[in-house]
Amino acid sequence: MVSSIRLGGLVSGLDTETIVKDLMKARKAPLNKLFQKKQTEEWRRDQYREMNALLLDLKNKTFDMKMQGTYLKKAVSSDSEAVVSAKQKGTPSLSTYNVEITALSVPAKAASVKFTNSLADGSTAIGEAFDFKIGTTTINVTATDTINSVITKVNAVSSTTGVTASYLQDDKSITFTTTAAGASSAVSIGLVGADFGASNKLNLSVGTVNNTSETFTTESGFQLSSNVIQGTVKINGISYSVNSSAFTFDGVEFNMKSIGTTRVNVKPDENAVFNSIKGFVDKYNEIIDKINVKVSEAKYKDYKPLLDEEKESLSEKQIEQWEKKAKSGLLRQDALLSNALTEMRRALSTKVTAAGIDSNFDTLSEIGITTGVYSEKGKLNINETKLREAISVNGSKVMDLFTKASTSADAATKYNESGLAVRLYDQLNASMSKLTVKAGSSLSFVDNSTIGKDLKRIDTDISKWKTRLQDIEDRYWKQFTAMEMAMSKANSQSGWLANQFGGAR
To answer: What is the number of H-type helices and E-type strands within the chain?
Structure first.
């Protein structure tokens, strides 16, 4: 507890405040080291998480590479784009589709109906009350309603009725339009009442209505609908009816343009497969380069995290430059990251020994992908000509090299039998798990990682040291205060004695 009385050199003339601060500087050294240690561990934690994010980026890319669909992409083309255009939507089973368009489909359209009335404008009162129905929804019209207010009522329930209304002043007409198309969206519109006759100012409809159930008969009004006109197409001699100009058949989306015949060709999209593999290699090289830089960073031992009081005398630029060196080398030769790099390289360099794998296509080098020189630290290089040839001539073997899955329960056997991408994906998962155990995740509210627990211990030590230093500071002040009080008392006694001796003469 802070002393309630502090005498700061009133008698002695000492700068007690400065003296206590200087005394406390030495005492604060252990606390300052804890602050610096905490900052260092927080930086280290953040750098681990950055590395984990890089591995996640590569893992996502690797996921695509272990899926067969990546290698089964097709180049779909039509001999006559004016008749039919086509593109891949699934996995086509044929290489050629002979297509004959005999009738084009006409899609359903939103239906509309218009009623002309004799009111002066949209703001004139209708002057009579009546009800009308849109489907099963009743719209109540009062004598003071206007066309505009009726339209507002109609549009307010359009999500229920499937009908909107609009008004055109030029020809004094109300138009009702369906919000959906097709026979399934047919909507009836008609008046409700025993005798609406000529008194209907909106001129909505003529006919009869069953007032008991208030459901429309076919003569009760207008029914809005517009049906699709089906198209007819022959594919490889077999006729099909379609409801839209665009339809999917056997993994191919056909888009009918005009009456006529054409041929749609399907062949492996070698460029797409090549670009997928190249994109994967580029991402792999990018990630291992960044991790290699991190584990090789220079460490500057003389650059410790700056304390708050040290930052006060520095500019923002100086602080930035200092902290850049203080952060450098925190993961130098880190065992977790070094092991992750080793396992990544091993995953891509070990032969795939699964049954059915061609021994001429069981390593990356055999499809034109090789490891660079030692100074490149594991980067991969692509012989474009050799890779394109492998994809063109032995596409299925290239796919197996990356995607082969093992069912073995033995870990070593499963590893050797797994395709390169399958193996790498599993290894990335394992490395990321270890990094998460070490440094936690920024997405988690509770940090139970190794570094997280260390930071909690440091916070506890900091709290203890703050209490201890406060006690020490209080003790210093208590000692100086006691000295000041003693000196004050001594001065008072000296003055009294001097007065006594002076009085004796």
So the answer is: 13, 17
| Dist. CA 390–CA 388, nearest whole Å | 5
Are residues 195 and 143 part of one domain? yes
Total length of the chain? 505
Quote the tokens at residue 456: 């909690």
Indicate if 91 and 121 belong to the same structural domain: no
Task: Show Cβ contacts of residue 460 under 8 Å, excluding neighbours closer than 6 positions.
Answer: none
CATH number at residue 208: 3.30.70
Q: Does 319 map to a domain?
A: no
Instruction: Tally the domains of the chain.
Output: 3
**What does the block give as tokens for 347?**
């995953």
In 34-93, DSSP assigns E strands to 74-78, 84-88
* Domain interval for residue 139: 110-224
Do 185 and 264 belong to one domain? no
DSSP 354-413: -TT--GGGSSGGGGTEEE--GGGTT-EEE-HHHHHHHHHHSHHHHHHHHH-----SSHHH
> Are residue 349 and residue 214 in the same domain, yes or no?
no
Backbone angles phi, psi at 225, to 5 degrees: -165, 155
Q: Helices 420-439 and 395-403 sit at what angle, rounded to 10 degrees?
A: 30
Place of tokens 């506890």: 460
Contacts 24+ apart (CB under 8 A), 442-447: 442/49
Q: Do 119 and 44 have their domain in common?
A: no
Assess contact for 95 and 232: CB atoms under 8 A.
Answer: no
**DSSP-based three-state secondary structure for 240:** strand
Going from the first residue of the chain to its last (505 residues), give the mean pLDDT of each consecutive group of 10, the final group possibly shorter.
Answer: 53 70 82 94 96 97 95 94 94 94 82 79 87 83 91 92 89 83 63 52 50 35 64 96 92 96 95 96 96 96 93 94 96 97 95 92 96 84 96 94 95 96 97 96 86 95 90 81 75 69 57
Please give the Cα distance from 305 to 40 (Å, whole number): 7
Instruction: Say whether 134 sits in a helix, a strand or coil.
Output: strand
Same domain assignment for residues 289 and 413: yes
Contact 383, 377 (CB under 8 A): no
Largest CA distance in the chain: 145
> What pTM value is reported for the model?
0.68
